[in-house]
Amino acid sequence: MQRPIISEFIGPCSSVERAIKLALSSKNDKKSYSLGPIAHNKNIVDLLEKNNVFVVENIDELASGDTLVISAHGCKKEVYSLATERGINLIDATCPSIIKIHNEVESYSSKGYHLIMIGDKNHREVKGVVSYAKSYTIIGADDEIIVPTDYDKYVIVAQTTLQSDKYEFISKKIENLLSNLKKIVVILNTICYTTIRRQLEARELCKNADLVLVVGDKKSANVNKLLQIARSFDKPAYIIENVNDLKSIAKYNITMPTILSGASTPKELVMEVINIMEQNINTVDVNEVEVKTEAVVTAEPVEVKTAKKEVEITTMEEALKHGFAPRSYREGMTVKATIQTIDPTGVTVFVNLNGKNDSGFIAADEMEIDGTYDMSKYAIGDNLQAIIIPKTDAKLKAINLSKKKFDEILVADEAVKAIKEGEEFNLTIQSAIKGGLLGKIGSYSIFVPASQIRIGYVKNLEEYVGKKLRLRILPPKEEEAKKANPKRIVASQRIILEEEKLAKEDAFWDAMQVNNIVEGKVKRFAKKDDKYFGIFVSIMNKDCLLHISDLSWTKVDDPSTVLELNKKYEFVVLKADRDADKVSLGYKQLQKQPYELAAEKYHVGDVVKGKVERIKDFGAFISIEPGIDGLVHVSEICHKWISNANEALKIGDEVEAKIISFEKNKITLSIKALIEAPVVEEVVAEEGKEEKASRTDRFNKRAAKAEDKGEKKARKEKVEDDEPHEYVSTTNGATMADLFKGLDLTQFTDDAE
Predict the structure, then answer these.
(1) How far apart are CA 366 and CA 392, in angstroms?
(2) How is residue 649 annotated by DSSP?
């Protein structure tokens, strides 16, 4: 068996180490408690219990005065307020990256975004994150992708230990699904940087290994992710929780073992496994080895060497990247270095260019992206790559280097793979040049032509320097592709904006179907020649016209009496012309018409008050209330016969009348129905018979009979309203000819004749 290949990442990540230190600092004469394990590793839990820090699963188990440590995974939002209410001392050891996720989720949720969480619904981290959202959906990494579609905006986040490629696949699939439904989707990169690096390294190390050992706890999410990566290469892979687990690999004829470490695994356990493996390099049957659990205490330090990839240099660019360059050093150059000394201030290295070693120095704060520096992670003789940075001290003879910046480039270059496949990305512009803008991602330069910055002409390129753009790669033309610089990407923001604009327009016109009811905000009232002609309503950020004639069933001079500015109402689409880019709306069509309101309020037999609004020969129109009129026929004004309504009424008179008919949206009134009819005295002859009535009395009786026969066609055609009204009432009346029809005029002649 060859010497095992050891992961560069040994021991817990900085966040777990911080949580352990905070938990240990909480101990006093009384017990302290952690809400859930500080980290998913039994060795760490046992260590804390020995130091009087015990695990509880619920805050309800604690009393006032107790000390509670929040684990690195975080907790539900409610825990903080409950701890304050109950007088519990709180020590927050939540990973800073998870705190950032909490803040982002809460911010997006307050803006109406629905949270989609990709991760294990039973994991404490996931439970904590979703507690900061008003609405959420949790989707497991291997679950069927089902998302609710009744929200307008979505934000997607991942459990920090999720495999980056799996998150990319799931989030992209969800984004495509929701984008097709015209939804707004935001994808946040929430996978832990340490997790990404461990997973990237694991993929490289597992390619050539014949056995993979993942040292850590079986309950740890990141340990299980490393196990999945190893098995994806069809390699035998095991989780090693303690050295006794090494017996399970005895059956393998091991030639090239690889050892990986979880982010919550104590370094002592990893070193113990390494010691045993190296002590038995020539032994196949590990089961025969005496396993000593205290080997880590007594063993001499073991030099841990990380896996090294041999690189074939074929271009000058690759030579610069891997440190084979001329002796002319320059800032930004990537060099290959070998560790010479290690101390708390940083690492001294050899920089080998053209066969000559030069001294370089990497300060502690330039070692890791997350700002941590652990001397035990490095050994003299280890090779690493770094970037030349400006000197902070002019007297310093050594070349000033940064490993952190090189690592940042590696991570960024990994992201460029998705960019090249057409994925949208964000870029902060660093400079403006002739013809466009420049920025950088990893080792790639990004160029945005001026014509691709936005829709329309850009006059001043400088105003975009320092600003963040949303971009997508512009594939080069076939003839340009052969000459294109592989490290240069041409990108466009305009194509994204145009696609979004078209999508919004399609969604708008899909909604603007005739008779559709839509919601809009009253934007402004429009005037012409000092008269209001309409209202502009904003629907989906587009102005639509509501003509004043479609505002109300009654005449309106000032639209503010019906609608308020900046307030939302429902409208009906009357006309929609995409070619002309015009939409006409209606408001009154969604309101009850006056006759509908009148039918609910007034009934035959009711007595109403009103004002005489118009007078015609055949009767008078009485305004009962705005938009509701009733007709008093001339025959219903008074008991005595009159030929014209003007004889009894004038415009503006206030009268009381009784509703005698309400049919076909027409109200017929009677004033005389509320007036007592006069008593007619009859003259009787001595013989007891009725004396012949005077000629006038007989005329009145015949006229009344003629009136009762109903409205004649000639009179009906004569009735014309001089102004459009929603309700015009008529009644059965008679023309002058009808009054005299069938009348024997000879009876009115004198007896002498």
Answers:
(1) 12
(2) -
pLDDT digits (tens, 9 = 90+) for 236-262: 888 888 877 777 665 556 667 888 888
**Is the pLDDT at 292 greater than 90, yes or no?**
no
Element (H, E) at 55: strand 53-56
Domains of the chain: 14-96 (3.40.50.11270), 97-191 (3.40.1010.20), 194-286 (3.40.1010.20), 319-409 (2.40.50.140), 422-500 (2.40.50.140), 512-590 (2.40.50.140), 612-740 (2.40.50.140)
Query: Dihedral of CA 637/642/645/650: which sign?
Result: negative
Phi first, then psi, for residue 6 (nearest 5°) are -105, 135
Alpha carbon distance 552, 448 (integer Å)? 53
pLDDT at position 749 is: 47
Instruction: Categorize the per-residue pLDDT at 279 as very low, low, confident or very high, splitting at 50, 70 and 90.
Output: low
Q: For the segment 321-361, what is each residue's pLDDT rounded down to a tens digit?
A: 444 434 456 788 888 888 888 888 888 888 866 444 578 88
Q: Which helix (H) or strand (E) holds 33?
A: strand 32-35
Q: What is the pLDDT of residues 353-389, one digit of tens each?
A: 644 457 888 999 999 988 888 888 888 888 899 999 9
Read off the pTM.
0.39
Among 326, 399, 330, smallest CA distance to 361 is for 399
Beta-strand ranges (E) seen in 593-688 are 607-616, 619-625, 628-633, 654-663, 666-670
C-alpha to C-alpha distances, 738 to 429, 711, 715, nearest whole angstrom = 93, 9, 10
pLDDT, greater one: 412 or 105: 105
Burial letters 312-335, b for 16+ CB under 10 A, else e: eeeeeeeebbebbbeeeeeeebbb
Chain-centroid distance of CA 724 in Å reads 50
**Collapsing DSSP states into helix, strand and coil, what is residue 182?**
coil
User: Distance of CA 14 to CAs 88, 95, 170, 317, 372, Å?
Assistant: 27, 9, 28, 34, 7
Which residue is listed with tokens 């017990």? 31
Give CA–CA dist 352/354, Å, rounded.
7
What number of residues does the chain have?
Answer: 753
Q: Where are the alpha helices (DSSP H) in 135-264?
A: 164-180, 193-206, 221-232
Active-site residue list = 125
- The secondary element (H helix, E strand) that includes residue 384 is strand 383-388
